[in-house]
Design a protein that fits this description.
single chain, alpha+beta, five-stranded antiparallel β-sheet
Length: about 625
């Protein structure tokens, strides 16, 4: 791996044998990011106008976002140090001065750096929540020392929340924490706003520690860095006498969530690449830290630090933050297709949530106990998550975790539906990203079962209907849509995990002349991936040995292929996907069985195909016998 763009303390291989990281590494990473902001600050430090594509909210809102999200990071750094500088350092005192000045100038309504007022469903609501949390955590060093006239201006700005309307998803919690801050400083607030937001998330709780982010099947990292995080941050503000017993429930749910959350991280620290706002990167570790902070985590302290430090180190070793010390819009470097229109140049600084662990004292067990391995480092992992409809599959020999998706589509329950590449795919992983640039998404080859119109236009997987998710098996159904056809064509898909492989069985109803295509994982890198193909199989391999392969077991033509793309993938500018095809279908019902692999092993698809027996009876029941003798019936 290349060296980071900034200096880090020496590693500690006794306390942290797996990552080498200590609390000092986290502080150094925080300090580098905060120091790098200074060239982009407005004169009164109320806004940070960073380079990069502007969001749809405009430059002033983006500047506020730069203040708010980095203030969250600064607040954890300040509070974690008890507001005190280490001998010979002035880092903490400078942060206190800087953000105090920013609060003063940002709330001066007639000033040139004034923050936009809080209005219904405005982006400012998101940023206000970060400021509220930061003010609460740094109260002795910032809020309590503010000029009373500035305190009044801050309260006046926050008062735009009272009685206001937010979007009906995780945004409800921004209102909850912001108005609880008003309550904590004796300012007017609405208890019904707070109770209404907290009551609303009860409608979205689906069990086993999982929420959906608003109505529908919206499962992604927002569950951890928003729907678990803000209720417990609210409880820290409200205190045990005023939380009405809610905090106990939130802790129980977070504990259940964390029981399987470690399965989302590869041995190299990478989180599974699925869902929106992936540019928040380190924020994926926020619920792990919150579990330790609220003393409800089922994880050993050494596992908490190993997971969080492994993720931070993963990005640092891949150039994040960049040579300027900034977090670009992307995954490793800048890659806009992995962002959303609401993402501005300061949006990535929600990564600040991943530094929540700095609120834990230096002598807390998460900082002092010896690291322990992640589950994927110890044994093959099969984890069924029925609530989101996911299977997680980790293999220790290559450290890769794969997510098999039969439940999350990010669509409302009814009405028009879309097919975002970060939700619609059959599979995701810690080592790959979906082909998400518009030109590649139009072809949608990777991890997708497509019906192909005569002109080659692929069907879409929009609203996903989960059927079963248990053990090593999950199934779902979707209605495929094709241009020129008013009717929808049902596709039922089943995934079964076996060793390092995913067995896929698809049942398709479609007219004659409609081909079927199955894509494997897209792999990417700086160089064009190598490809190989043969009768009924295809594979592609990156320069560092990551291999994606598909093997036809039933219902496919002998000819397979590899689709190459440029500037379509968050993992590198050159990417490729192996695929299978069934061209001459007679129409009606058909069954298609394939084996899909993503591995760092050497793969011999032709030998594997020859050693697997597949039969399909007249009722469409599929029986597959693997080389080790295990038989699977679908």
């Amino acid at each position: 791996m290349p060296a980071p763009y900034f200096s880090l303390p020496p590693t500690d291989r006794v306390r942290s044998p797996l990552t080498g990281w200590t609390r000092a590494h986290w502080e150094a990473l925080a300090d580098r990011q905060l120091d790098a902001l200074l060239p982009y600050a407005t004169p009164g430090f109320a806004q940070y106008r960073l380079p990069g594509r502007a969001s749809w909210s405009g430059v002033v809102s983006d500047g506020l976002e730069g203040f708010a999200r980095t203030f969250l990071l600064a607040s954890f750094r300040i509070a974690g140090a008890g507001g005190q500088d280490e001998p010979g350092s002035s880092v903490v005192s400078h942060l206190i001065e800087r953000y105090t000045e920013g609060l003063t100038t940002g709330t001066e309504r007639d000033g040139g750096e004034a923050w936009p007022e809080l209005t219904d469903c405005s982006q400012q609501m998101v940023e206000a929540a970060s400021i509220a949390i930061g003010l609460h955590e740094t109260r002795p060093w910032i809020w309590d020392r503010l000029d009373p006239r500035v305190q009044e201006r801050v309260v006046d700005w926050f008062s735009g929340f009272v009685g206001g309307r937010t979007w009906d998803n995780n945004w409800r919690l921004f209102q909850v924490v912001s108005e609880q801050f008003l309550a904590s400083v004796g300012a007017p607030y609405s208890q019904s706003d707070i109770d209404g937001g907290l009551d609303r998330i009860e409608d979205w709780y689906v069990g086993d520690g999982w929420y959906t982010d608003g109505d529908g099947r919206n499962f992604d990292y927002y569950i951890g860095w928003a729907l678990h995080l803000y209720p417990l941050l609210w409880a820290r503000m409200a205190g045990p006498e005023a939380d009405g017993g809610r905090a106990k429930v939130y802790k129980e749910r977070l504990s259940a969530f964390l029981g399987t959350y470690t399965q989302f991280f590869g041995a190299d620290g990478a989180p599974v690449h699925q869902g929106r706002s992936l540019t928040y990167r380190f924020a994926a570790t926020a619920p792990v830290w919150m579990g330790a902070l609220t003393d409800c985590s089922p994880l050993a302290p050494g596992l908490t630090r190993r997971l969080a430090s492994g993720t931070a180190r993963h990005f640092v070793e891949r150039g994040v933050p960049d040579e300027r010390g900034l977090l670009p819009l992307g995954w490793y470097d800048t890659f806009l297709p992995s962002t959303q229109p609401y993402s501005g140049p300061a949006s990535p600084y929600w990564a600040s949530k991943g530094f929540l662990g700095l609120l834990l004292p230096a002598d807390h067990p998460v900082w002092t106990e010896r690291e322990v391995p992640l589950p994927v480092e110890e044994s093959t992992q099969y984890t069924a998550l029925p609530a989101p409809g996911w299977l997680l599959h980790g293999t220790p020999h290559d450290g890769i975790v794969r997510l098999i998706n039969h439940g999350s589509d990010h669509n409302p329950p009814t009405g028009p539906a879309t097919d975002d590449p970060h939700y619609a795919k059959l599979a995701y992983s810690t080592a790959t990203a979906p082909e998400s640039a518009p030109h590649a998404w139009a072809r949608t080859v990777d991890n997708h079962l497509a019906l192909l119109a005569p002109d080659g236009t692929p069907s879409r997987r929009r609203r996903i209907h989960p059927l079963v998710c248990e053990g090593r098996r999950a199934s779902s159904r979707h209605e495929a849509q094709l241009p020129g056809h008013e009717e929808e064509f049902p596709v039922e898909s089943t995934s079964v995990l076996h060793g390092p492989w995913e067995l896929r069985v698809h049942r398709v109803q479609a007219p004659a002349g409609i081909a079927v295509r199955e894509g494997g994982h897209a792999v990417a890198g700086t160089d064009r991936p190598h490809e190989e193909r043969g009768p009924g199989w295809a594979l592609t391999r990156t320069a560092d040995g990551l291999t994606s392969a598909v093997v036809a077991l039933y219902g496919w033509d002998e000819e397979a292929g590899v689709a190459h793309e440029v500037e379509a993938n968050a993992f590198g500018p050159r990417s490729a996907t192996p695929y299978l095809r069934a061209q001459d279908r007679p129409g009606g019902a058909s069954v298609h069985v394939s084996l899909v692999a993503l591995t760092r092993d050497v793969v011999h698809p032709q030998a594997l195909r020859a050693s697997i027996t597949t039969t399909v009876d007249e009722d469409g029941q599929v029986r597959v016998t693997f080389p080790d003798g295990e038989a699977v019936t679908v």
